[in-house]
Amino acid sequence: AQSVTQLDSQVPVFEEAPVELRCNYSSSVSVYLFWYVQYPNQGLQLLLKYLSGSTLVESINGFEAEFNKSQTSFHLRKPSVHISDTAEYFCAVSDVWAGGTSYGKLTFGQGTILTVHP
Amino acid sequence: DTGVSQDPRHKITKRGQNVTFRCDPISEHNRLYWYRQTLGQGPEFLTYFQNEAQLEKSRLLSDRFSAERPKGSFSTLEIQRTEQGDSAMYLCASSLRLAGVTGELFFGEGSRLTVL
Fold this sequence. Notes:
By secondary structure, chain A is mostly beta strands.
């Protein structure tokens, strides 16, 4: 069985400050890792993903996350946040089976509400 | 708009009534997923389809819940004899599975159910 823990339910920061949203997971098999963002009154959108290869993955809007297998973590970071980054962020995992097969079924964390203040 | 669409967006019903939600996935996607999200929690998996076949159901999906995808395109999620604990956002997602690889899940905006 998988589980995902997002250690902070709310993170308030000031604009242009750095931010880190923490995510830890547990699984008995290899995993694919994802961060989704949900803006108010909108659906979940994929922010970035780790499938294989480089453990540092980046999004087009300046976020990055690093897969740390030994610590079973996939923390999300941004060096300088904007007001428009205010949203709820969800970390999610998907089991990986033989040959890299994934059923696509995701287990989500509880979410972290990022609030960027001017 | 060619994304995942869900209908209705909001539904308020009285306890004991039946409700049905519809999801129209991205047209070329063969996988369709239903999730439930309660306040303050992340989405929880309910069930998924590969084309018209329902391949997995979560233990969360009690016998009052039924999901169908009769022609491998749109899907419906019906809740019978609703209870206040069914109040939640019901999310639909779709993806394309090809050659054993499941692509990114695209989510709809959800259907919010309030049971009075």
